[in-house]
From TrEMBL:
GO biological process per UniProt: division septum assembly; FtsZ-dependent cytokinesis; septin ring assembly
Cell compartments where the protein resides: Cytoplasm
Name of this protein: Cell division protein ZapA
Organism: Clostridium tagluense
InterPro entries with a match to the protein in the record: Bac_CellDiv_Activator, Cell_div_ZapA-like, Cell_div_ZapA-like_sf
GO cellular component, one term: cytosol
Classification via Pfam families: ZapA
Residue runs in coiled coils: 90-140
SUPFAM superfamilies: Cell division protein ZapA-like (SSF102829)
Functional summary from the UniProt entry: Activator of cell division through the inhibition of FtsZ GTPase activity, therefore promoting FtsZ assembly into bundles of protofilaments necessary for the formation of the division Z ring. It is recruited early at mid-cell but it is not essential for cell division.
Record key words, sorted: Cell cycle, Cell division, Coiled coil, Cytoplasm, Septation
Taxonomy, superkingdom: Bacteria
PANTHER family associated with the record: CELL DIVISION PROTEIN ZAPA (PTHR34981:SF1)
Record note on quaternary structure: Homodimer. Interacts with FtsZ.
């Protein structure tokens, strides 16, 4: 467990935690800037009032980050669902494409083995039609593959943002807990009568 001496609003505090020393200093610096900003806007504020306003600001940051995280999570689920649907559609296109290619080959074989000129002409027209349909299927498959690739890239980006938001929420929760501890200490220092009453 790390023990770190930090300074918030000119007062020193000893923090204990399993987190790295750099992290504890970063949290303390964040809270110190927040409270100094609030006191700078209103010099008549007491330390305890500024501490409460700072706690409210940190709570607001935490709830907004949590809301953003939930929104990103929902969007991520939607993208994953769409991704699965696109994959299923792509598989369906591949099956249809294979079926059309097999049918086209069958017609081609018949064309080679039949000597009747009129029938051959009909088969040629049918073969052209099938080839055109086959080309349309190939183009549709390409579009589907490209859309699937884009969705995967967007899905990866959303997962990264979701993970970043989760870390931010954890960070804000830790800051809020630390700030509540500091607030309790500050109240104890500011109002020694409370301590005597408890004794």
């Amino acid at each position: 467990m790390n023990v770190v001496t930090i300074k918030i609003n000119g007062n020193e505090y000893n923090l204990k935690g399993d987190e790295r020393e750099e992290y504890l200093h970063m949290v303390a610096s964040y809270v110190d800037k927040k409270i100094k900003s609030i006191m700078g806007n209103n010099e008549k504020l007491s330390t305890s009032s500024a501490a409460i306003l700072t706690a409210l600001n940190l709570g607001d940051d935490m709830f907004k980050s949590h809301s953003l995280c939930k929104e990103l999570s929902n969007k991520n689920e939607s993208l994953e669902k769409h991704d699965k649907e696109s994959i299923a559609q792509l598989e369906d296109f591949k099956k249809q494409l294979n079926h059309m290619e097999a049918y086209n080959q069958e017609l081609y074989n018949k064309f080679k083995n039949i000597e009747n000129g009129e029938y051959v002409k009909t088969l040629e027209q049918e073969n052209i039609r099938i080839a055109q349909e086959l080309q349309v299927m190939k183009e549709s498959t390409k579009v589907c593959i490209e859309e699937n690739r884009k969705i995967k890239v967007e899905n990866k980006d959303m997962r990264f943002k979701l993970q970043s938001s989760k870390y931010k929420i954890i960070d804000l929760q830790n800051k809020l807990i630390e700030y509540q501890i500091n607030l309790a200490k500050q109240r104890k220092i500011s109002n020694p009568l409370l301590t005597r009453d408890k004794e």
